[in-house]
Amino acid sequence: MIINMPNTETNRIARKIEELHQERGEAGNDRVLTLIISTEKDELKEALEAANGASREHPCRVIAVINDDGSPDSTPNQAGQTTVTTSNDVPESPVNTAHSSNVTAMAAPNATCDVITIDPDGAATDLDAQVRFGADAGAGEVIILQPRGGLKRHADTLVMPLLVPDIPIVTWWPTNPPANPANDPLGAMSGRRITDAARSNNPAATFERLAANWEPQDIDLAWTRITIWRAMLASMLDQPPHLPVTSVKLTGGERSLPLQLLATWLGRQLAAPVSMEYVPDTDFITGVYLERGDGTLSLTREHSDEAVISQPGQKPQTVSMPLRTLEESLSEELRRIDPDEVYASVIRG
Amino acid sequence: MSEQTSWANPLRDPRDLRLPRIAGPCSLVIFGVTGDLSKKKLLPAIYDLANRGLLPPSFGLTGFGRRDWSNEAFADFVKECVETHCRTPFRESTWNNLAKGIRFVQGTFDDKAAFERLSQTVQELDRDRGTRGNHAFYMSVPPSAFPIVSKQLADSGLAKSSEDAWRRVIIEKPFGHDLESAKELDRVVSEVFDPNSVFRIDHYLGKETVQNMLALRFANSMFEPIWNANYVDHVQITMAEDIGIGGRAGYYDGIGAARDVIQNHLLQLMALTAMEEPVSFAASDLTAEKTKVLSAVRLPNDLSANTARGQYAAGWQGSEQVCGYLEETGIDKSSTTETYAAIRLDVDTRRWAGVPFYLRTGKRLGKRVTEIAVVFKRAPHLPFEQTAVRELGNNAIVIRVQPNEGVTIRFGAKVPGATAMEVRDVSMDFSYGRSFTENLPEAYERLILDVLLGEPPLFPTTKEVELSWQILDPIEEYWAGLGQPQPYRSGTWGPGEADEMLAREGRHWRMP
């Protein structure tokens, strides 16, 4: 069920949610966290799909705050959205009308779903909202907020009345994160801040900025994406003979952030020199080669969902190792919301 | 994994909590591979593990059975089971990798040559797949077959491994049918396998449930202070099934509800409820506490007043008409096997002195439910008119084990707006998430992975199994002399005898 609430107020949204919970005879408090998604309008659909999937493992209330108005020229500059032109601060009624139609366009998941629009009762406000329930909202409820004008700079107090009491808050930027997530209004109120530099406009620069401003509560999905690689490599070294690794070589796309992180991690843990070989036309890690006294151990992934393990004296073996989906990565991140000390040591270099 | 003392894998950092443990090279041999459990649970769980990337690439799976199957025919059978029952999406690439390690050995348990072939198959897996001599044997067979299979494994040299490799055996409940047979079973298996290599599995009691119980009791500060005889009136532990014996007549008749469920499942739940805080959650420390509390269990002096048994009669199970136990196919018309059993036990410790533990289980009861209800004493003084609290029962904490795992707290609240003050029972509910389970691993996935990783399981040890039989044996002996159990209509909550048993002490069974 989808409820459109153009020109609304947060307390009307909160009331509506309460009402829906009562109508459906469920307690709204059995959520394990509030997941705030700070996103651009174009990314909303994909982000919500991933969040809905993850909510089946972690029942949560999802609050998506749209931080642009969806028009092509308004993509926020990622290095800190401190400049807001004054013209945006003035709520004008024609703009509002335009936005009302935007609300309907807030990426309804499918055409057949039940959509209700609640007419605004009163003057125009700076907020359009949409509430999703039941089949349209994974295991929880989804609240989409489209603030306008000056309200955009106060996302923290905007979501405050809608948070589930007493449970952790996680904020996720599916694409362009603020330069300093900890200082962002939403980031500051969160116990966990998830960024995804690889999906930003300029991955390398974004990641560099994030690393410079890194705080223990920050995590980037580039790290989550190599969990399987790390686990496979660790289990390869579990097997005898337990000889030291003398050098490491990685191959993959030059722009792959996971590749850089994996290289740093392997170098640190194995205390061995690491070299890289960049492969054109790929954005992923394609192989890891560990040199040992008895030969080379390698884990390579040429195709998207199969990897090959080679070990000295054994036939190469294929193993299913599909690229991780956004939903899987997000689910993993929501599983542990305490600081990841290993990531910390990799980030601090 | 456990033997590596001097060498530490540089890629395994104890602070690295997100790295999943992937099983090392190994294979799993399943006896009774065409059985229901294997089709519906084991084979799909193996696929799901592979799909989640938790099995080694060199994994081998060998089926042992009577059918005249080739490796390919068996692989087709596995594929069919997997496609029907797997939890994660079916991926052709995962399947193809898994299928490469699938083998079938045709034979019966008394066929020496078949075990020779099994031994060769396993060696061939070592050679072709690189399973490195690590093999687990899953005995998905009736307990009566354990001795012969164990012996054959020993004779064919499969039970013993070389220095760096391991052999493990997985046994499902029931672990014997009385103390003596449990000891005999243990003797047979431990003659062949090292005690640390024997994994006793009670699939009713997953690791998840045990850990949830531990977290509830020992991670919180508000339950422990009242978790004793000063506040607790009594404890009820229930495992009710809505189904009958189904096709298990051969196994069930002569065994009965108490041996089938109370001995292992309910006594384990009781031990987890009643035990003291373990010094750590390591398997050995947990076992120490469970053993202590099981050894402090005292049977009532008068078994006739403190136990009850019943047998389901024809009736309507919910909306379905069902026959009685004695009319089930394969059951002797004069069978005295109980399908319902209730017993009272006491725990002789300071914490539980005078607090009865009521355990009940049965088939064809009102609904499928497993729960632990800790029922509290009434407040020593109620500053209300008598009429105001007439409807107020005892406070209770109910731990639901299944379905819908969670916790309910029952307490009194004022009825709003009533002209006269009135306090009535209300409940507050926590559920592990209405959709939590959708993406959570099946109990069998975790269980098989634990075995392959050699993680010490939280399952009952020999000592616990034996203590449990010590508790149950005198009751079974007493029942053996009683004749026919009291019939109860299918779909009800058991025989009148059980209700009277509690009524005599001024209590009543909870309606789950």
Considering the chains and any ligands shown, give keywords for the structure:
heterodimer; A: 349 residues; alpha/beta; 2 domains; 6-stranded mixed β-sheet; B: 512 residues; Rossmann fold; Dihydrodipicolinate Reductase, domain 2; 6-stranded parallel β-sheet; 18 strands; globular
What does this structure look like?
- The complex is a heterodimer of chains A (349) and B (512).
- Chain A has 349 residues and is of the alpha/beta class.
- Helix content of chain A is 31%, strand content 23%.
- In chain A, a hairpin with a 6-residue loop joins strand 14 (306-310) and strand 15 (317-320).
- The termini of chain A are far apart.
- Chain B has 512 residues and is of the alpha/beta class.
- Chain B has 2 domains: 27-201, NAD(P)-binding Rossmann-like Domain (Rossmann fold, 3-Layer(aba) Sandwich), CATH 3.40.50; 207-372 and 461-503, Dihydrodipicolinate Reductase, domain 2 (2-Layer Sandwich), CATH 3.30.360.
- Helices cover 33% and strands 21% of the residues of chain B.
- Chain B has 14 helices and 18 strands.
- In chain B, the strands form 3 sheets. In chain B, strands 7, 8, 9, 12, 13, 14, 15, 16, 17 and 18 form a 10-stranded mixed β-sheet that branches.
- Chain B is globular, with a radius of gyration of 25 Å.
- The chains are: A alpha/beta (349), B alpha/beta (512).
- At the A-B interface, helix 9, helix 10, strand 15 and helix 11 of A face helix 3 and strand 17 of B.
Number of helices of chain A: 12
Order of helices and strands of chain A: EHEHEHHEEEHEHEHEHHEHEEEEEHH
Q: Averaging pLDDT over every residue of chain A, what do you get?
A: 84
Give the number of domains of chain A. 2
Total number of strands of chain B:
18
Q: Report the uncertain regions of chain A.
A: 72-101
Span between termini of chain A: 47 Å
Shape of chain B: globular
CATH topology of the largest domain in chain B: Dihydrodipicolinate Reductase, domain 2
Distance between the termini of chain B: 44 Å
Global structural class of chain A: alpha/beta
Q: Using a beta-carbon cutoff below 8 angstroms, give the protein chain pair with the largest interface and the number of residues from each chain.
A: A-B, 49 and 44 residues
GO molecular function (chain B): glucose-6-phosphate dehydrogenase activity; NADP binding
Enzyme class (chain B): oxidoreductase
Binding site for substrate (chain B): 203, 207, 241, 260, 363
Binding site for NADP(+) (chain B): 66, 173
